[in-house]
Amino acid sequence: MTPEAVADHIGALRAQLGEKGLLAGGDLAAYETGARYDQGRAAFVMRPATTAEASQAVAYCVRHGIPVIPQSGNTGLVSGSTPDETGSQAILSLDRMTAVFEVDAVNQTVRAGAGWRLSALNARLEADGLFFPIDLGAVPMLGGMIATNTGGSRFLRYGDVRANTLGLDVVLADDDGTVLELGSGLRKDNTGIDWKQLFIGSVGALGVVTECILNLEALPQQGAATLLVPSSADAVPALLIAMERAFGDTLSAFEGMSGNAIRAAFAHVPHLRNPFENGEVPDFVILAELARSNAARAGEQPLDALLEEVLAEIWENGDDLLSDALMGPPEDIWALRHALSDGVKNAGKLIAFDLAFRRGDVMDFLSYMKAELAKAFPMLTVCDFGHLGDGGVHFNLIAPHDHPALADPGFETSVRDLVFSVAVERFGGSFSAEHGIGRKNQAYYDRYTPEAIRDLAARLKQAISPAPLGAAIFSNTRTK
Hints:
By secondary structure, the chain is an alpha+beta fold. The protein has helices spanning about 5-15, 30, 50-65, 120-125, 140-150, 155-160, 195-200, 235-245, 260-270, 305-315, 330-345, 360-375, 410-425, 440-450, 450-465, and strands at about 20-25, 40-45, 70, 90-95, 100-105, 110-115, 130, 165-170, 180, 210-215, 215-220, 220-230, 250-260, 285-290, 320-330, 350-355, 380, 385, 390-400. It has four domains: about 5-95, Uridine Diphospho-n-acetylenolpyruvylglucosamine Reductase, domain 2 (2-Layer Sandwich), CATH 3.30.43.10; about 100-220, Uridine Diphospho-n-acetylenolpyruvylglucosamine Reductase, domain 3; about 220-340, Alpha-Beta Plaits, CATH 3.30.70.2190; about 350-440, Alpha-Beta Plaits. About 35% of the residues lie in helices and about 20% in strands. The chain is globular and about 75 Å long.
């Protein structure tokens, strides 16, 4: 776009959206820079406050051939919410979409604007004794969580965003900015195709989520947590099964944390309490949590006592699954888990992966991949952590900031090619568990998605939302 054309578009959109609704010129870095080094240049930033304004903004861009990048909390790993470097794309930010907030305490649902941050949403729901049960280390907005179908640390008990979404309002990328109202808060409605599911996890390429109706759960009123040191990597799957069978759905989290990731957290957050003997961090640690939503009853065994009893049984049954178990206040134990992401990010140059496997393959992948990386890229340190209960792995690789390999533009691509080939081809895993496609994963979508599925996605995109929308391209091309 020429400067004159950009100026005309800015004027027209500002007339529609108001002064707060259109940003141009000046410092747009907060919108142009992502969470993991990605950075681009936007023609301008649109900040609608309502679904109607979002519809007007998208329709204007479609009619004038301006590609739109929907942006939620901008906490993703795959360059899915930032513009490219051409300066020709418009960002549509959800950060003003917070006017709608309607709680139905009896139905245990909330209708909310897509710009609500997860932390702010749950803080406001606390007065009703409710929460949206997706636990994340970051503070994303609801629209992005829906677009990427996030899971989080308590997936084991509550499921992912898809399982907890009852309704959506979506704006399509067509000449009219068509608005679809999908779902109504009903948990049972088989009167036709459940169209909202088409947009959950589609990374914004099929439509922009502006409002949502979410399932809520009762806030836990009892909890207990422990740090478990498994006797070996091979013992982890059996330990998970033993815990699930002993606790049932009282087991709300089963998180794996590598020693390298824990040490990075301690280095970055010095006030974190180190619970390990002599401060020596084990090679691998599991955070297990129990939770009940009911208040404690007279005669009911407290969760910490139940946890100690079952761990003693596991310890004594002769299967040699545990080397150690450390009890402590749940808030202290979770403080360590939630510090991992920032700790790893600050340990060096980060190459981050969000992978998923069958639960029994997680530890085998980690062992195999660490051996392969030591041979191919010995400068990299593996700082993995993730959700053993659902097979998700945040596979983080750290290189020293001053390592000469980082000067090679092809270095990161070579690392990604190796990790994804092992994850997908050898272990049958997913190259993106929660963060979607985006520019960083586009080549792997093209490579690993079957042609029939790519063709179906491309036809769906063309049929319902034909204009350029989002960083991901649902095409039927193949990257060699």
